[in-house]
């Protein structure tokens, strides 16, 4: 029952400024249009509604349209040209090694709404895959899908990582939905990574809901909000 540090992957272990998120939105939008036979406006509206409602666009597609999530994954996440965008991040690797070597938090865990193929590909390209002790991901072969911010997904992560006391769970994510859920479910140390200036206003507007959640502007700032681990 030692502390475990859970890391979201997309827009968290790599910067949103890489534009992978924007490229993914293009692929998702095309999937909505092609598979649901929608025009641009309706596809955009439905995509936004599903993300807001479920925390994951594919959750709405599977639940309401019986879309095969693994087919979706092949055409969206697996199709992203990540090899042309991501490269080893030596500063991030150094920070993660420092976190593990101190001995207080010996295990690092990936916690993503993506399918495992995508998550493992990202950390491999960043040159940090060997530093993580496991991954909790959205099982696209399941129905219904379980993903953040659902309580079942957080329970799955704790169980798979062997965390008996939620207060020993450290967690960083770029999504306010997910960080607020983690705090609500009793996770002990919750951090939201807000990279863009334009996203700060939304965070500040929910100051009451975000009480107890640390804020960082760079993933390398984790030692500043968790000095006890370093």
From TrEMBL:
One record GO biological process: pyrimidine nucleobase metabolic process
Alphabetized GO MF terms: nucleotidase activity
NCBIfam families: HAD-SF-IA-v3, Pyr-5-nucltdase
UniProt name for this protein: Pyrimidine 5'-nucleotidase
